[in-house]
Amino acid sequence: MTDLSGFQVATRWPARDIDRLQLYSFPTPNGVKISIALEELGLPYEAHLIDITKNETWTDHFLSLNPNGKIPAIVDPDGPGGKPLALFESGAILLYLAEKADRLIPADSAARYETIQWVFFQMAGVGPMFGQLGFFYKFAGKEIEDKRPLDRYANESKRLMGVLEGRLKGRQWIMGDEYTIADIATFPWVRTLRDFYQADDLIGLSDFPETIAWLDRCLARPASQKGLTIPARG
């Protein structure tokens, strides 16, 4: 039987089944990447709601798992060598899960690195830029009279959408015919841009028909529909 007693986070959010992978998350674009991937892979897991609206990521229990104080994070009781493994950063977790299950990532070495390249594109560009746009367009930042920050992030978000549009022309998925962690990493952020930030007037989403069609294909997958609701907000 796996022993998770060495993980402080488990004393605040105890596992019901200690042999299952433990997901600590909240249904944000970064958080749902992992629940969607887990649903796609069919790996047994338990989801624990870490309520970011109550600053639960800044508790000592969660910081012991991720000192950066961000969701998502996981503890896999059956990590490399059969030993428990804790991980944070959604891109790293996606790569780990894909390699663990030997799915959602190409077997071919060159295609594998190309997939990782697109995951990094999301992590370094799409997520940070779309997130800043959301702050200045939908949240407290909209009260700032100086609109240069909003213009900056809107223009960069449009540019990144253009990169995706070019990549998806003539392709079903980012890597062509194979659905991968590159799609899972990216589509929750495009969904947020359209459906939560409601930034169509700002970005002009009709200018990116390939990307929007791809988004709808991603959303139609059963694993996406389920994973987007995990963990439940309570």
TrEMBL record:
Domain (GST C-terminal) ranges: 108-234
SUPFAM superfamilies attached to this UniProt entry: GST C-terminal domain-like, Thioredoxin-like
Domain GST N-terminal: 18-105
Family statement drawn from the similarity comment of this UniProt entry: Belongs to the GST superfamily.
UniProt-recorded name of the protein: Glutathione S-transferase N-terminal domain-containing protein
Natural source organism: Neoaquamicrobium sediminum
Taxonomic lineage of the native organism: Bacteria, Pseudomonadati, Pseudomonadota, Alphaproteobacteria, Hyphomicrobiales
